[in-house]
Amino acid sequence: MKQVKHRNSASKILILGTVFLFTFFNPVFGQEEVVADNTAVAEASSGGDVAKGEELFKSLCAACHKRYKKMTGPALFGVADKYEREWIYSWVKNSAAMVASGDAQAVAIYEEYNKTAMNAFPQLTNTDIDNILAYVMEPKADPPASVPGTGDAVAAGSGSGVSTNVILSILALVFLMLMVVLFLVNKTLRSFAEASNVELPKAEERTPIWKAFIQNQFLVLVTAIFLLLASGYFVYGYFMQVGVDQGYAPIQPIHYSHKIHAGDNQIECKYCHSSARVSKTSGIPSLNVCMNCHKSISEVADGTATEEYSKEFYDGEIQKLYKAVGWDASSQSYTGETEPVKWVRIHNLPDFAYFNHSQHVSVAGVECQTCHGPVEEMEVMYQHAPLTMGWCINCHRETNVKVADNEYYEKIHKELSKKYGVDQLTAAQMGGLECGKCHY
Amino acid sequence: MSSNKKYWKSVEELNENSSIVEALQQNEFVKEIPADEFLGDKSSLESSSTSRRDFLKYVGFSTAAASLAACEGPVKKSIPYVVQPERIVPGVANYYATTIADGYDFASILIKTREGRPIKVENNNLASSNGDANARVHASVLSLYDNSRLQGPKKGGEDISWEALDKEVGVKLNGLGGKQIVVLTQTFASPSTSRLIAEFKAKYQNVKHVVYDAVSQSEALDAYQMMYGERALADYDFSKVNTIVSVAADFLGDWQGGGYDGGYAQGRVPKNGKMSKHIHFESNMSLTGANADKRVAVTPTQQKQVLAALYAYVTGSGSKSSLGADLDAQVVKAAKQIQRAGSNAVVVSGIQDVDAQLVVLAINKAIRSKAFSQDTPRTIRQGNAKAVAQLVKDMNAGRVGGLLIAGVNPVYSLPNGEEFKSGLEKVDLSVAFSMHDDETAGLCNYIATTPYYLESWGDVELKKGSYSLMQPTIRPLFDTRQFQDTLLKWTGNAASYHDYIKETWTGILGGTSWNQALHDGVLVRPALAKQELVDALETPEGDLEDAAAPAPVSAGPNVGAAARRLSVAKSNGLELTLYTKTSLGDGQQANNPWLQEMPDPITRASWDNYLTVSKADAEQFGLTNENVANGALNGSYAKVTVGESTVVVPVIIQPGQAKGSVGLALGYGKSKGLKEEMVVGVNAYPLYQNLNAVQNVSVAAAEGVHEFACVQLHNTLMGRGDIVKETTLEIFNTEDAKDWNVMPMVSKDHNPYAVTSPEVDLWEEFDRSVGHHFKLSIDLNACTGCGACVIACHAENNVPVVGKSEVRRSRDMHWLRIDRYYSSEDSFENDNEKKDNIAGLGSSLSEFGEMENPSDNPQVVFQPVMCQHCNHAPCETVCPVAATSHGRQGQNQMAYNRCVGTRYCANNCPYKVRRFNWFLYNNNDEFDYYMNNDLGRMVINPDVTVRSRGVMEKCSMCIQMTQKTILDAKLEGRPVKDGEFQTACSAACSSGAMIFGDANDKHSEISKSEHDNRMYHLLEHVGTKPNVMYQTKVRNTTEA
Questions:
Q1: I want to staple B150 with a disulfide (CB 3.0 to 4.6 A). Which of A86, A426, B449, B466 is the partner?
Q2: How many other C-beta atoms can be found within 10 angstroms of the C-beta atom of residue B44?
Q3: CB-based burial of residue B564 (10 Å sphere; 0-12 exposed, 13-18 middle, 19+ buried)?
Q4: Model's pTM, two decimal places?
Q5: What distance in Å separates the CA atoms of residue A371 and residue A391, rounded to the nearest whole number?
Q6: Which of B956, B960, B967 sits opposite A358 (nearest CB)?
Q7: Counting one residue from A and one from B, how many pairs have CB atoms under 8 Å apart?
Q8: Residues of A in contact with B80 (CB under 8 A)
Q9: Which of residues 744-783 of B touch A (CB under 8 A)?
Q10: Do residues B978 and B1003 touch, judged by C-beta distance below 8 A?
Q11: What are the pLDDT digits (tens) for B496-534?
């Protein structure tokens, strides 16, 4: 998180306050205007229903087409102008037949896109196709940055911070003025007194507090003990955190957001980290796994962008992936020039500690989040757990072994639980605290 | 009261006028202390601006900086694949079946790879022959990561591209003007390579293929050809017979390519009161001789006479023996034994003499030995000594135009290497196919750098009808091309060798698919199995009486005459037998630190070869061995002369060495193409005249003392029967187990209790009946001492190599050692008796002293010792930081990160199996073996911690393997099956001596071993209750 420092100078507060006020009223009208413009254009270009068209486009076409960008198939913006309506109807319903019949336009498209045949959609009516066309013929909305509305988002975001600061600074100002007033009053009164020769009482000579403190040996002793204990506490705390990297969130070569993937898009952890099921390592997914989806997702949706990371930023990160894996988006093919990504490893166990993911994930059925924290909320991945031995051991003491439907445990669990007189054995009782289980 | 006593500091003070006393009063040190010598010269010291204070400042600053820097963890990068290969999951091992065929070692093996890099060799259980890896094969994985390998083709020491090399060599091959082209190769035993060389011959006229084995078996091949019309080696299956008579055949070593220990060991374990009988005649103490029931030490000349006599006695023909009475009696006994066993006996011989080999074949034919099968001769030695000798002549005569050398290093390994060298200069075109810039390759015009077998394709016919495939287990590390691919190119064949093999195999595969054959790594052609069946019908079993009667020796070679020639063999003085060591073999892997550091099973010396001399001869020549104060062994040097060649070698006095004979190992003393640390020993090949292992030599003491790195100081058991328990077959069969496998007793309240009983236990027993309880059983009858387990343990557990000087200081790191003990009397039995009869001080002083010396021809026993994983472990109780503790599954665990290195545990261990890391052995250029370079580190097992300086380590009973087995079972949701639990040593053991498993599984093999009446624990009386068990050694001393 970047931290913005606000200097509490009165003039700046004033300026900010004004800006704040202005922006507060401005955008409402601006936004409405743009939306009205858009709909007007859409309705003008075709007779279709844009909303229905969007729905259909997303369910049927989006796998291969984009509106403004070439993908597996051509960009669809402008098709209605380029081709005859009737021709489009028959193409969508059965393109293969048209190619077979030798239609010149159809064959040209077929050749251009590496002889990849488009799926036939006989279920679509002409109205449906009209609706889709209406949607795809919508001109590209201007990037949100140019829309005056964005300014409002930024201001609103920092608004709460500013208002408290303003209140605090006003209070401070008031106190300052009070002090100045008091000082002035005092000064005036003294000068009056001097003028009228009033003898002001002299304050008694008192032992300074620090001398009094030194003279009180008991107090010195107690303070010394207290200071020693306190520094001991802090030194111990400092040394115990050496090598513990809880919260470690290094900057990665590609800004990969777990929040977008695991959170917003609900992708299962083990889809990418598949070796966690069978291996000791969870595995950083190889880039071909990324390309399973990113072959067709070359940019993020507008809604993905946040105030901190813009759409351009995210799209740029996807381009980094393409560069690393050697994917040429324009020709939709691999160039063969790869550049492996050098991720920064976050969870570092020392060499002498053996940890096996499959034991925990597949056998014990532990959720990834138990150790890795709310990954689905992490924009930037960080180390959630301290990964200390005490942390491991605590979990082994508290967690019951998952024995259901596992014949391996049948005999040993029966005998051990009888021995310990419990129904459910913890990992510790199973032997999960023995040194040699993790150190060899 | 004051005293006038004067205290003298030295005798000098008596002399009043002594100048020394005067000087000492003035100055404490009479001479000036040579401080300048280590401080540097005075002038530079004074001119230096760094004061003591500055120095302390620097120290303070660097310490503070280092400790501050240590608080911040390093940034670690993690780089995933761009496209992950389908079958590779990081963290999960893949296994590939392949074959090693380096011309000396041939074996079908499995290679364990992790993240695409080979890290370990395992036995291929599907292989019916040569499926067992020996120590060298286990170590071969490390040679892959040898950083002294050549990284690309060379021309006269300069880099050259493959295209340029192909072009230049192509031009030269065609422009030799009719001069001979010779292809000098190792034994490939490869159907595809044979076909390829035939095609090469067809393409270029006047091509000759010469096969050269550095360690020759030429005579045995010739004899077999004379007898059976085929140039191959007789194959024996020792598991089919119960009587084995060997005349100098080290079949547990490298005789005829080795790989016999599995079959041999099967008959050595007493079953139903029966075990095989093994009689051995030899001059050097070999691994096989050490395992024999009866070993007779004879000189090489006597060996021939023994064989002739044996032939005469067994077949009833031939001349009368000329042997001395004692030896004759031994031969008669052996002959009787053979006659009684009939076809259940076998005679083998390692004498390098056509006559001797003929006689052996004739004896086995006569008794119709079941061990011998004519249908499956071994093809893994094809070298022809005569052809090699002719080649050297031709080269010097300038008749050879082109020489292609593949897989051999004749300049190093030929006795007339110098002659070969001069001949090489007269050859117009010489190309070496080599991995190293070795003695030969360095002298050739071109080096066509070859990949290692783990990066190559290949096929091998190990014995007739038994095929094996070689496949790459890693992408070539360097810019290399295998010999066959190059040859294909030069014959104008565009196919890759992989395709070429597939083409060859269309005729071999039969009904099997290529993929299946590649998966298994081995293929036995059914056609030949059928033929075997027919043969079995022809020689019906059961009529032993009949078989015992000598069958007439068929026409063919005149065996009678051969036997007569043998019987009149004459010796001209001292005879030298050149042999190969278990660790280094013919010396191909001399750059392998694991093998160099592996102690020899017999002498227990590492990093050296030496002249083995009998005690009597040593006294005669004035050669000595002595142990210095720290226990290390020193030996004198001897000058050994054969004809013109002389070498100076260190001497080890070897019990059991026949008087009048000496031994020396080949394969050492390589000087080019290997690291400096690995240049050890003496090259004995110059003495290997005419490629014959037996030579007449003269030996004389030479100047100097050699420092050995010998890991065993004490060689005899001193009658301590609780270390190695031994009995004879007769006693084993007739007496109760408690008489020959005695349980030590202790007295409590004047009542004797077995030491294992809970009444006399200090500790409260922990209940180990739940879950797994791992135990390891070691059968001393089956263990041949081959050392495969030592290297397997090395590879599995990242055991460091420490080097010769550290081994000499007893700081070797082997987690598993194989102790070798000699008897000080004729047998261990007599040792025990002698010890028991010692009475009184005088007797004990003299006789215990005597017992420290091994007998002239001792009995030998091997005992693998690793951490015994005591249930009542003495090491655990003394650890101040609880770094070593006990697991419920029986393993004594060692937490390296907890260890502070007090070494109390090692001192309290009665078995001396704990090893201390005196230095940082990894990433340290002072230990330039393999852990200090990126390439060498690729062999490290990622599942086992690499230990650092200052911690104790020891056998973990391969806890990473048992944990893996358990996890696999858990993932599949099933109980663990018997046989699934393995340790590196038990998996490597080809003789079945080591059995590992869960003793709580009542039906397991280990559970049976635990209740065997031969079972005992090492040093049972100390009450440690180990989880490692030994099975009493039974010797078959029954005589016919």
A1: B449
A2: 9
A3: middle
A4: 0.83
A5: 10
A6: B967
A7: 151
A8: 283-287, 340-341, 343
A9: 767, 769-771
A10: yes
A11: 999 999 999 988 888 889 999 999 999 987 554 444 444
